[in-house]
Specification:
Spore Coat Polysaccharide Biosynthesis Protein SpsA, Chain A, globular, alpha/beta, disordered C terminus, seven-stranded mixed beta sheet, single chain, about 25% helix
Amino acid sequence: MAADSKHAWVTLLTRPSYLAGVIILAHTLQKYQTKYPLIVLVTDTLPEQCITALEAEGQRTNQLHVHKVDPLLPLENVNLIAARFEDTWTKLRVFELITYDKIVFLDADMMICRNMDSLFNIPLPGPDWLAANHACVCNLDKDPWAPTDWCAETCAYTPMTHPDALTHPTPVTKGARLTYHLLNSGLFIFRPSQDLWDNVLHFFNTSPKLKDFLFPDQNFLDEFFRHNWTSLGWQYNAVKTMRYWHPEMWRDGEVRGLHYIVDKPWQKRIARDGIAGHLGRDAVTHGWWWDEYGRWEREREECGDEGTLKIVREHVAKQLTEEEDRKQVEANGKAGFPILVPGKPGVLEDKSQPGGPVLRAKRPGERGHGPVVRN
């Protein structure tokens, strides 16, 4: 690690299926000229070839550093929505990095779209405070696992409109409804200290509430920092579903950190119909990721870095053949994709968004997919 670095971005990688996400996170941080290193926490569950790829990236950029940690698991079994969330407990080891003055944690399925170094200048009211984004609790698709009070009416983003949402997010106040106190742990800012880490670890090892946390690290941070966190503008942790769940607030040109929740863009190529993602709604945002991946590939090809390319490509969807493309288009049609968002008719259409350049998904038949600036 850079000896003079007092600030750092940090992410966690425990399995090879997220390697491409971390590579593009690092690539886009560098693209937008961050001044700070990215520390990648890894566990022994990550294959050695993935660590090799990360270290090769670090040698090229001097901005990525691998830091090995032990997995962090509760002393007793807990209930989770999905087994894959078990790894996220280890995210709490970010609080161990007490040699830094300030840390911004980023999930491995995020991509940077504009420089975000200003996050390190965000003031925190005290040494045991976080800055983060609210969790979006709209649950417009009525997922059965969601709590009964998760709906558009109780979401902290519903009252938000452009441009005020960028600088005046819904505040976290003691008298606010419970859902306004729920944060999204995909991005959070804090000041590390030995006292804070000791308190986090003590709560982790002693609190009986852990057994009821469905989203491990997110629910943990909700509880541990209750009344001790401050909200950020949506643009820093722009969850991809917000694009069509909160169109009154979202503007493509304002996105700084894009968060690919649920299905990941690198898991599936986009066919000629331009349909992508959960329920077929994510053509634009998934296209942005593939554009950046294409740039990264070309850079590594020009450098002759075949070793890193080979490792990363093993964990990225292969290019579609003409027959595979045809079958994917046919399957999308049979599924009726994209499924319109309940209560949000027309938000998936290509329409002008005031406040900056409009970005749209390329039309079927256009070369490639991703953002196209239309003035």
